[in-house]
Amino acid sequence: METRERTKVVLLACGSFNPITNMHLRMFELARDYLEDTGQYRVVKGLISPVGDGYKKKGLIEACHRLEMAKIATYSSDWIVVDPWESQQPEWVETAKVVRHHYEELVATEQNDDEVDTVKYLKKRRIEALTFESTSSHNARRDSHQLKLLCGADVLESFGVPNLWKQEDIAEIVSRYGVVCITRSGNDAHKFIHQSDMLWQHRKNIHVVREWVSNDISATLVRRALRRGQSIKYLLPDPVVCYIQGHNLYSAESEQKNADVILAPLQRYSGASSS
Amino acid sequence: MAARIPLVLLACGSFNPITNQHMRLFELARDHLQRTGRYKVLSGIVSPVSDGYGKQGLVLAKHRITMAKLALQSSDWVTVDEWESQQPDWTETVVTMRYHYGRILKQYQQIASTDIDKNLNSLAVSSLPPRLKLLCGADFLETFKMPGLWLDGDVDEVVGRFGLVCVSRGGLEPERAVHESDVLSRHHGNIFLVREWVRNETSATEIRRALRRGLSIKYLLPDSVIKYIKQHNLYTEDSERVNNDKVLRPLTKQAETPVKTLDD
Question: Is A138's pLDDT higher than 50?
Fold first, then answer.
């Protein structure tokens, strides 16, 4: 019996999902186990948000396929769902905006929730909205949902890549929302946090989850195997394998897509031209 | 152009439980062998060990067989064989291999001797008789070093007469295991080393550990197997203690009587 009620958490994973693999799906499971094991959280939902085509990453196939594969992959899950919002936006959307969007949706849903005492709740929400800037997410919303960004160590470390992220976006994500980072190399992740004043300040909001058993099924490797006519069975759910084969996705040609184009964030933040 | 040699891959093990990683072994091995241009892989066989093996934490063969069957439902070339698990005592790998090889050869001879319907069976595609190879992970090679676990003559027959297809994973270096063993080195031409680029250390041991701790195992093995495990409440602290006090059967059996020879 718990003395204090657990905070409800929604995990949001942004990425190419090109294609989704068992590794992506495992991340959710590991994150949920970890958070619930702390005794402080109850993970109620997982969201997969595939990036839009505007991201212009090399080898990125159409969002419609990536969405569909992710949906097929999560049929058997009772808590992980796919959200198309990000992929439907005309231009690439910063991760912070995606997080914000989903958080606002979450809040809107909470307000419709029958379990909650509506009057008291709405009053609290108005107060919270006004004090957003000053309070850290850790103390502010104990009885409402928290949205956390779920990612691998590569994303955490990408915070350091010039012109890939806006500093204020990183600040918003770690201070207001929180990050759950799944990694084999826990030491590297902690070191990275240690070396950044901003991340260090919000270290309590960055959960580093050690993956003791490595499960390194990268989408890049899967695409390579497909180009070489090698089997990808058991690396991703069977129905996704069928879909890929049925639509003949991922060839040498598809891997060349966007080869001559600059990644959207780099283009946006450094003002570089695409030629 | 020389006809491809038809092959059947046999994996022996506890399969306690079967995992995606086990099934990947077959996929990787088949891709590798067919890419050499010299072989055509006809089928794969999963042969779970019998309860007589006496390994710690080994759940009943009937469960391990059912789980393997569930897991392989979606495969069109790998099946589960119960013969080994049905034998009264633990069976040496070489004996299991001889059994399956005899079966496959008989099948081939039956088809080869009939002129009718040659196109119906893939065995008839090649005029060459099929060969049987033992499929394993790199950790399996390490077991050849363990005293009392293998009889020298057996290793010679498994590796020399039949052949090994060994899929490497994680940090283990199969080349080193071959190098450090005289008998393996002797037959190095009959050992195919397949590199698994995807670093996947998922093992049945880890899965059992996760289950004892109430952690998720989803996406590490097929949903149907997970459902079965939950329904039968397999893999608990109690199940892990099974055979705690026993010695692994090969160690006692091989100290007693010599294994029957090829002539039988």
Answer: no
- The residue ranking higher by pLDDT, B244 or A185, is B244
Q: Which residues of B touch A (CB under 8 A)?
A: 20-21, 23-24, 27-28, 30-31, 74-75, 170, 197-203, 206, 215-216, 218-220, 223
Among chain B residues, CA nearest to A30 = B216
Beta carbons of A215 and B220 less than 8 Å apart: yes
Range of weakest confidence among A14-28, A121-135, B100-114, B140-154: A121-135
Model ipTM?
Answer: 0.81
pLDDT band at B182 (very low <50, low <70, confident <90, very high): confident
The mean predicted confidence, pLDDT, of chain B is 88
Rounded Cα distance between B236 and B242, Å, is 10
Output the CA torsion sign for B133, B136, B142, B148: negative
Rounded to the nearest angstrom, the minimum Cα separation between B10 and chain A is: 18
* Nearest residue in A to B24, CA atom: A234
Whether A185 has its CB under 8 Å from any CB of chain B: the answer is no
Chain A residue closest in CA terms to B202 = A213
- Adjacent-strand bridge partners of A215: B200
Whole-angstrom Cα distance, residue B146 to residue A95?
53
pTM for the whole structure: 0.85
Distance, CA of B234 to CA of B240 (rounded, Å): 10
Q: What is the pLDDT of residues B127-156, one digit of tens each?
A: 799 999 999 988 888 888 888 888 888 999
Residue B145, pLDDT score: 81
Fill in the DSSP letter of residue B247: P
Give first-to-last CA distance, chain B, whole Å.
37
Task: Tell me the CA distances in angstroms from B243 to B16, B129, B239, B249, one per residue in order.
Answer: 14, 41, 9, 11
Instruction: Indicate the residue of A22, A213, A214 with minimum beta-carbon distance to B219.
Output: A22
Tell me what pLDDT residue A140 has.
Answer: 45
A70 Cβ under 8 Å from any chain B Cβ:
no
Interchain CB contact of A76 with B (< 8 Å): yes
> Which one of A19-23, A161-165, B118-122 scores highest in mean pLDDT?
A19-23
Tell whether A218 lies on the interface with B, counting CB pairs under 8 A. Answer: yes
Residues 6 or more apart whose CB falls under 8 angstroms from that of B48 comprise: B13, B14, B15, B18, B61, B64, B65, B68, B80, B82, B84, B85
What is the separation of C-alpha B165 from the centre of its chain, rounded to a whole number of angstroms? 10
Name every chain B residue with its beta carbon within 8 A of the beta carbon of A77.
Answer: 218
Q: How many CB pairs below 8 A link A and B?
A: 58
SS3 A74: coil
Model pLDDT, residue B199: 72
CB neighbour list of residue A27: distance below 8 Å, 6 or more residues apart: A13, A150, A151, A152, A182
What is the per-residue pLDDT for B168?
Answer: 86
